[in-house]
Amino acid sequence: DALAQIGEAEVVAVVDPVADLAAEAAEMFGVARTFGDLDEALALDECEAVILTSPTPMHAAQAIQCMDAGKHVEVEIPVADSWEDSRRVLAKHQETGLVCMVGHTRRYNPSHQWIRHRIDAGDFSIQHMDVQTFFFRRTNTNALGLPRSWTDHLLWHHSAHTIDLFQYMTGERVVASNVMQGPVHPELGIAMDMSIQLKTESGILCTLALSFNNDGPLGTFFRYIGDTGTYIARYDDLVTGRDEPIDVSDVDVSMNGIELQDRDFLAAVEGGPEPRASIANVFPCYEVIAELERQLDEQ
């Protein structure tokens, strides 16, 4: 959907091991070729870059596979589901010099961009970010309610959005962190609830609550508490702390964060500047996640 809005983007192939799904996507967007194996697409001379939207456990290996084939790559968040694999992807990017970008979409959502512009102008400083990431997933299903072949994770996937955004918006590294998790689901093998606290070098705080048990509004809700105001971002919608709407329609060329993310990737592929969400720029997020995982392992 996002690439269809970008005139200079040509999708040359769709890859999916499930042939019917590949054919359905190709027909929907007028793509001529489908493949069941990534290597087949990587062999195409006209394939310059790859966008990976595969299951999280495959991200690191496939990103490395693409760069080994000489292709630029954008991989859906998170870049990996382990510290070791995160480091391997960064090392491959550094070795090849190819564009490697991770889909940290919150850096692109107009709602968060609007706040970042205020920060850059010196009109707003964050004192505390209070964030809720709430889903209702007591079975192994995705956001559309379809069965999953892999298990999603609050720490390695969902917290990555907020941890990265917190460091990006404050312009500071996290120097102190704490995590607690609730009971582990007997079938899924993951904690269904988690609480994370972060602090930057200047003392800015982030409080993050995550749950797969929430039977209510779904998604992530960001409250920015600052020195000159309070703002609440709900995806691409932004309101003040008193629920007054803020128009963010003129922040960028689109209101679609995925489209803006893809535009940044393609511009870099064409020789433009390093993407805002390059693997190097978002890597500090995974350093924090690795530390939080270490704490959980010791609990």
Overall description:
Strand 3 (49-52), helix 3 (59-68) and strand 4 (72-76) form a beta-alpha-beta unit. The protein is an alpha/beta fold and 299 residues long. The longest helix is centred in the C-terminal third of the chain and has 20 residues, at 279-298. An eight-stranded mixed beta sheet has the order 7-8-9-6-10-11-12-13. A three-stranded parallel beta sheet has the order 3-4-5, sandwiched between helices. Helices cover 34% and strands 23% of the residues.
Weakly predicted, low-confidence segments: none
Q: What structural class do helix, strand and pairing data support?
A: alpha/beta
- Helical segment tally? 8
Q: How far is it from the N-terminal to the C-terminal residue, by CA?
A: 43 Å
**N to C succession of SSEs:** EHEHEHEHEHEHEEEEEEEHH
Strand order of the largest sheet: 7-8-9-6-10-11-12-13
